[in-house]
């Protein structure tokens, strides 16, 4: 059985999907972009601020599912420019304990929703 997870502390879906789905002890999140749910604006000033907003959105979705970054076992990072990898990785890494960090892939893509520069999704287990 699946449970739909939602929170107003992260952006509402812009299509036929949910912020996250909890199935048993596993939480599957949709990708998050740098949409600030408080201002209804995208945070695109620079890649550091953009990535921080993405991670804060993910933090809110994880919390709504009763989890934290410590529960994350897998992440997927999609970026529009591999030259931003270092800055994205620095912000992303600040949310995890390096010794227990999740598995991950980072992929450069041609285009992301709303023409953002980074999108991140996660899988977490209680």
UniProtKB/TrEMBL annotation:
Recorded coiled-coil stretches: none
Family matches, as InterPro entries: RidA (IPR006056), RutC-like_sf (IPR035959), YjgF/YER057c/UK114 (IPR006175)
GO cellular component: cytosol
Superkingdom field: Bacteria
An MF annotation (GO) of this entry: deaminase activity
UniProt xrefs under NCBIfam families: Rid family detoxifying hydrolase (TIGR00004)
Family: Belongs to the RutC family.
Protein name (database record): RidA family protein
């Amino acid at each position: 059985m699946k449970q739909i997870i939602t929170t107003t502390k992260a952006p509402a879906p812009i299509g036929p999907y949910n912020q996250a789905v909890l199935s048993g002890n596993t939480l599957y999140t949709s990708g998050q972009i740098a949409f600030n749910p408080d201002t209804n604006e995208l945070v695109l000033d620079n890649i550091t601020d953009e990535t921080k907003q993405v991670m804060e959105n993910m933090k809110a979705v994880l919390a709504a599912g009763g989890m934290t970054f410590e529960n994350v076992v897998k992440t997927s990072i999609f970026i529009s420019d591999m030259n931003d990898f270092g800055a994205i990785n620095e912000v992303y890494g600040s949310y995890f304990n390096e010794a227990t960090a999740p598995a991950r892939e980072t992929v450069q893509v041609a285009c992301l929703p709303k023409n953002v520069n980074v999108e991140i999704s996660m899988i977490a287990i209680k």
